[in-house]
Design a protein that fits this description.
homodimer, Rossmann fold, globular, 6-stranded parallel sheet, alpha/beta, 2 domains
């Protein structure tokens, strides 16, 4: 168990109807709200109207149309509104893309230079507007973490940035707001949750408590994602998925462990270049990465994974057990309607070397659970074709 | 999954040497510290001297001698010091008794009337001094929760009180500070952790995520407590126990569930009257309570407990499996050196009716997992003789 600090102050309001607490919670931060959202599904579902009615004592400004893999242009646009209108707080209504973009806006609104420079050098981040969230998809965990990932199409980069200042102040987690999430997005969200947990889980540090939590979160997603796909309005399934998504990335599963992530940085390159859905990209890469790193050095951890997550009986042949866990992972992603190959996205090997170089550099993959260099990443990408 | 709010803002500093961060963290709250501690073991271990040296830029006042099952007299004494000296914050160095007493002092210091009146009517609690913690035993979880339990020997009462204002601001969790905890206290702490988790676990609400966490915390304690007893300076064992104790009662295991606790309220009566160690009392009561409530209505939950916590194979005969889990619980407590009967404490049945009446009233046991009336509690106490 490594030393760690755990200070996650987000006020989580979980359950049906919890939006009603927002006015009371938000008035501590001021009167002028920038309401941010994505493609407009919140208008179709009525959530937009409900929130506007609830927040009628506030002055509401808006930034809609925030794209998946959110772009630096939206950050600049939001920051400009904040500066011009003297916005007090940002209310992000959506999933990871809207929340991440809103965090970046919150920081850029308090920064004099260009927003991208802020992302390139986090030392410039010393202040941010408060961010509140109404979550509409179980996926990224951005509602209770201090991270934002922003894409720059000009430079072909997708960069994460971190600061305790970015931690949302309040987050409404109402499972009913996820009933209308389309099947592909529900499944991609499930893969994203599982990937966060798996990235935390595969590490060399002895860590019974976080790994017991990680295994439990994985079993939850494996049980509830198919149920949510069959019965989109199953409250319990949506609720467990939603809470699992939040806990998967709020620091509980990584407390006392190394930061030794691998797949996320490779996937970031895929979605930076090809704009694919992050969770779906992870569903392709994760089982291939698992097969690539399975060795005498890692087989025991894979046996724990197969036994404690997938429920396979412990047996003499460690590799057989380990492979059973990896096969089950791959089959699960397929069973919930996710792709198994990059070819299904129309992606070929043209950019593999470029992506590998960036993934290794940005993700510091020489410090990953199994250290990866550019050749390793190219091989994993080739296995994924 | 019931609606819930989760807002646990304590800044946890976990690991060896983390005390060194205290001066920087505490200076936000002022300069005058009331340092609180128990029987003086922190002087023997050198922790007292190390902290005094670290905090030499602060003005330190002291309240030592805080007893197990902390008494209202200590609260009054601490509050008087705070008022007289204009104390800015309280630094509790110890376990649950010292922390609970310090929380009550923090509230009483901001209250004009008598401290016990504050506990009797929590509406009077509107302000409290900030509390910081250096934890020295893995047990109560008081370091990351908003509860304090205080005893009044005059009235024979032991009452819990709650307020978000009581949540510690900072808590140093250095496993090395628990190396010198005597075996009986290590074991009692383990029983206390397990009881918190068990009280949260046995509930009728479907709650995959919190119960996966609860099961994982129980497996952790079952694995690590014997190891910590055999090897008191085993860092990993002490670390997992410490983090498990904190997570057992910070709201994660109860999020989305009913508050349906039973054993704690019965045990509070035992330690209020006989001043026994809380965790040891719980070790006696918990398996007896389990046997008493096992029925067609609860057997499935006990089967989950036996299979997922103790690793017993699922089988046809549900009662056989359920009883295997209960037997294992009882045997475990015995194996780590804890008593199995009240007789071992020298307690007889003289006060059973009085205790039962208070436990049912204070604990609202008609709302417990299996509702209990006074006759039920007397029967459970008789089974414990």
């Amino acid at each position: 168990m490594k030393n760690f600090e755990f200070c996650v102050t987000t006020d989580i309001l979980f359950g049906a109807g919890q939006e009603s607490q927002l006015p009371e919670k938000l008035k501590a931060y001021g009167r002028k709200i920038l309401l941010t959202y994505g493609g407009g599904s919140i208008k179709k579902t009525g959530l937009y109207d409900r929130l506007k009615a609830l927040l009628n004592d506030f002055e509401i400004f808006e930034l809609g149309g925030i794209a998946p893999n959110p772009k630096i242009e939206s950050v600049r646009e939001g920051a400009a509104i904040c500066k011009k209108e003297g916005i007090d707080m940002i209310l992000a209504v959506g999933g990871g893309s809207t929340i991440d973009c809103s965090k970046a806006i919150a920081a850029a609104a308090c920064h004099d230079g260009d927003a991208w420079d802020l992302l390139l050098d986090m030392n410039n981040l010393t202040r941010a507007l408060p961010v509140a969230v109404v979550l509409t998809i179980a996926a990224t965990g951005s509602e209770m973490d201090a991270v934002a990932v922003i894409s720059n199409d000009e430079t072909g980069e997708k960069l994460p940035f971190f600061s305790p200042l970015l931690l949302p102040k309040v987050a409404v987690l109402n499972p009913e707001n996820t009933y209308t999430v389309p099947p592909f997005q529900t499944a991609s969200g499930a893969a994203d949750i599982m990937s966060h947990v798996i990235e935390n889980y595969f590490d060399r540090e002895p860590a019974l408590v976080p790994d017991a939590i990680n295994e439990g979160l994985l079993r939850t997603v494996i049980a509830c994602a198919p149920l949510a796909l069959e019965q989109p309005s199953n409250y319990e399934a949506r609720a467990q998925l939603m809470w699992a998504s939040t806990l998967a990335l709020n620091g509980l599963g990584s407390a006392g462990k190394n930061f030794a992530w691998s797949c996320h940085y490779i996937e970031h390159e895929l979605s930076a270049l090809y704009d694919i859905t992050h969770g779906a990209g992870l569903a392709v890469l994760t089982p291939k990465w698992m097969r690539y790193i399975l060795s005498d050095d890692t087989v025991d951890k894979f046996c724990d994974y197969a036994a404690n997550v997938w429920g396979f009986r412990r047996e003499e042949d460690k590799y057989a057990l380990a492979n059973r866990g990896i096969d089950a992972t791959e089959a699960f992603f397929k069973s919930i309607g996710l792709p198994s190959t990059l070819t299904e996205f129309g992606i070929d090997d043209a950019m593999f070397e470029t992506m590998a170089e960036k993934a290794v550099r940005i993700g510091s993959l020489s410090n990953a659970y199994v250290p990866l260099d550019e050749r390793d990443v190219v091989r994993i990408l080739r296995m994924s074709l």
